[in-house]
Each structure stands twice: as structure tokens, then as C-alpha cells.
Design brief:
Elements (H helix, E strand, L loop, with lengths): L2 H53 L2 H14 L5 H12 L6 H11 L2 H5 L1 H8 L2 H9 L5 H16 L6 H11 L5 H26 L10 H30 L19 H12 L5 H22 L15 H8 L10 H18 L12 H22 L4
Helix pairs in contact: 1-3, 2-4, 4-7, 7-8, 7-9, 8-9, 8-10, 9-11, 10-11, 12-13, 13-14, 13-15, 13-16, 15-16
Length: about 400
């Protein structure tokens, strides 16, 4: 081919490519500009929040805390650090907002600030918030049990139903002794109220016309019947759930930090979603399992034929690496079966099932899956220590 022809073709190709680049640049320039402006705006917002936090009085600081809580996700690290520093120096935020900040951030240091902990443990509603979010300090449940026992002893109606419902749904077997003791002491009153109530309901209307005092006594009897039934439901629910609870945030806990600390954070998040989003709970269990297996592979320096970074591998691949027959220390086959159960069930939360998640799983199944994960985690903690 003549040199002139080659030069002509090359020129046309270069010209065409140049035009394409120009078009792409013109297309993406405004979009890149918006992204850049968004990053700058976010950075500016962080600096603005830090400045406001540093200058705020207690009332304004409480408003900033509510602003962060309303966003519904973990605040930027710098912002939360500035807020925590003010609280540690004695700034006041009311106990309900404080409990929501702790739940949002899962920040143990914020929870352990002495005046914060005293304030939280003195507020029943904040304690129930923390219990529902599975904050791992058994003192939370202990304080609720103590308050419940005192209210029944003094016949104070305020928070008995509220605390009983919370323990029924989220209580560990540690609260069982308190519930059974209250049920024993309250049983006579419950039976009397139930018997009288049933008898009056069976009377003809003309014989059961109520005076104001009769109406008052009837309401009290109905409350006693409701509390008696709720007590028995709570005891049954706690027994069936058979959940011990964790104590990693308590001052009394002397357990060394787990090698798999981030897995525990994911499990805490999963527990926090048990009542509102089972799909999110399953996703967090899967993340915990993937982090656990990645950590084991790295700690044991297990060689993998699979291409790519361990950090980018997903659960089925990680399980295959661990069970490779060339690995001299394969996990127990029963543990592998536990992993298969976790993989199959968490897939329901990770992929579209063409139907609501609650048609496939319920809360009890997810609670059981967390227990399955804990068995696997306990095994691998011994596995990396070469105790098995």
C-alpha cells in the first residue's frame, strides 16, 4: 500500500478518535463537575458540623445530635469524633438521644463514659432502646429486671407492660429467674382477678351495671389479667429463644478482644434488624461469615489457587479454599455443614426472591442462624489457636 494511503488512513483514524474523545469529554464534563461539587459540598458540611459542635451550648448540641440521628446512618468519623469529645468533657445530651447515638455508631467508648452510663441506666425507655439494639452489656437487662421487680412489688403501673414486652421479645435466659419469681408472687393476684372478671362477664347486664368505683376496680382487674398473661408469654418466649446474650461492653467483662472483632460488629447489626428488616439481618450475618473466613485464611497463611485478592472473594469461594484437600488442616465437616446452612439462608437476603423476604424466613430462623454463626466462630477461634 502506498505510504500516502497509509498516512491518509492514519490521519482519518486519528481525527475520528479525536472527535470521539471530544464528544465523551463534553458528555462527562458536567457530570464530573457535579460529582466534584458533591464531594466539596460534603467536605464543607463536615467542616461546618465540626465547627458548630465545637461552639454549641448543650441545647444546640442536642439539636445537632438529633440532626445526625434523623439521617439514619453512621455519622462521618470526624463529626462523630468531635461530638464524642464534647460529651466526654461533660456536655449534656438527653438519654433518649444518647441511646440512639450509641445504637447508630455502635461506639463502646461513648457508652462507657461514666456520666453517660449512669444517665442511660436510669432511663427505662433508653434501656429498652439499647436492649432492642442488642448492645452487648448484660447490665442493661439487669437494670430492666430490677426495675420490673420493683414496679411489681410496689404495684406501680407505669412501665410494667413496656418492660415486659421488651423482655418477651429481646430478653436473654438471664432474665428468666426474675420473670419466674415475679410470676410466682403475682400468680395469686392474677388468678383472683381472672376469676372475678370471668364471673362478672357471665352475669346478665342488669346485674352488672357499674358504679364509678366498680368501673375503677374492673379496669384494675383487667390490667392484672393482662400483666399475668404477658408474664407467662414472656417466660415461654425467653425459654424457647434460649439466648444467652453477649457481655463485651460490660465493665466486668475480662474477655480478651476477639481476633474476629469485626464479625461481632456485623452480628450486632444483624440483631438490630431482627424486628424491622430480616433481609438486612441476613446480609450482616453473611458479611460476618465472610470476614471470619477471610481472617482464618490470612491468619493460617492458607494458599489459594483462586485468582484475585482474598478481600474480594465471596462466601462460596472462601468455603472452597478452606475445604481444599491440599490444606493440611481442613475444618471439621460438621462445621462446613454449618457454613452451608449460613450460605443458603443468607442468599435469601442477598438476591432477589421475587417475593417479600418474610415469605421465606422469619425472625426465629434468623435468630437461629446467628446461633449457628456463633458455633462456627467459636470453632475457628480454637482452630487458629491450634487447639483443635
Amino acid at each position: 500500500m502506498p505510504i500516502a494511503a497509509i498516512q491518509s488512513i492514519t490521519y482519518r483514524q486519528v481525527t475520528s478518535a479525536s472527535l470521539q474523545v471530544t464528544k465523551l469529554t463534553d458528555f462527562y464534563r458536567p457530570r464530573l463537575g457535579r460529582i466534584k461539587r458533591g464531594v466539596i459540598m460534603e467536605r464543607g458540611r463536615i467542616q461546618s458540623l465540626k465547627r458548630r459542635i465545637s461552639r454549641a451550648n448543650d441545647l444546640t448540641l442536642s439539636e445537632i445530635a438529633q440532626e445526625l440521628i434523623s439521617e439514619g446512618h453512621q455519622p462521618p468519623v470526624e463529626v462523630f469524633g468531635a461530638l464524642r469529645e464534647r460529651i466526654m468533657k461533660g456536655a449534656y445530651i438527653d438519654s433518649r438521644k444518647m441511646s440512639k447515638l450509641i445504637i447508630l455508631s455502635r461506639d463502646r467508648d461513648l457508652y462507657q463514659i461514666p456520666h453517660t452510663k449512669v444517665m442511660l441506666h436510669g432511663n427505662v425507655e433508653a434501656l429498652v432502646d439499647l436492649l432492642r439494639a442488642r448492645i452487648p452489656d448484660r447490665a442493661i437487662e439487669d437494670r430492666l429486671c430490677e426495675r420490673l421487680a420493683n414496679d411489681f412489688e410496689q404495684n406501680a403501673y407505669g412501665f410494667r407492660e413496656f418492660v415486659l414486652v421488651a423482655l418477651k421479645d429481646y430478653g436473654s435466659i438471664k432474665c428468666l429467674d426474675t420473670l419466674e419469681a415475679i410470676d410466682f408472687d403475682f400468680h395469686g393476684r392474677f388468678q383472683t382477678a381472672k376469676t372475678v372478671d370471668d364471673a362478672l362477664k357471665n352475669q346478665p347486664i342488669s346485674q352488672s351495671m357499674e358504679s364509678p368505683s366498680d368501673f375503677g376496680w374492673r379496669v384494675l382487674r383487667e390490667v392484672d389479667v393482662m400483666l399475668g398473661k404477658l408474664l407467662k408469654e414472656a417466660i415461654t418466649s425467653v425459654r424457647e429463644r434460649n439466648f444467652l446474650g453477649e457481655d463485651m461492653w460490660s465493665e466486668e467483662s475480662k474477655k480478651p478482644a476477639s481476633k474476629f472483632h469485626r464479625a461481632n460488629i456485623y452480628i450486632d447489626l444483624a440483631r438490630g434488624h431482627l424486628s424491622d428488616d430480616l433481609g438486612a439481618a441476613l446480609n450482616n450475618i453473611r458479611k460476618a461469615t465472610e470476614y471470619l473466613l477471610k481472617s482464618v485464611i490470612k491468619l493460617q497463611a492458607i494458599q489459594a489457587d483462586k485468582k484475585g485478592s482474598i478481600e474480594e472473594m465471596q462466601l462460596p469461594t472462601l468455603m472452597a479454599i478452606l475445604m481444599d484437600t491440599r490444606n493440611n488442616k481442613n475444618p471439621n465437616k460438621v462445621i462446613y455443614q454449618h457454613l452451608e446452612v449460613i450460605q443458603k439462608l443468607t442468599t435469601l437476603g442477598s438476591h432477589d426472591q421475587k417475593a417479600p423476604i418474610d415469605e421465606f424466613v422469619n425472625r426465629d430462623m434468623v435468630v437461629g442462624l446467628i446461633s449457628t454463626f456463633k458455633v462456627v466462630q467459636g470453632y475457628f477461634e480454637k482452630y487458629v489457636e491450634e487447639e483443635i
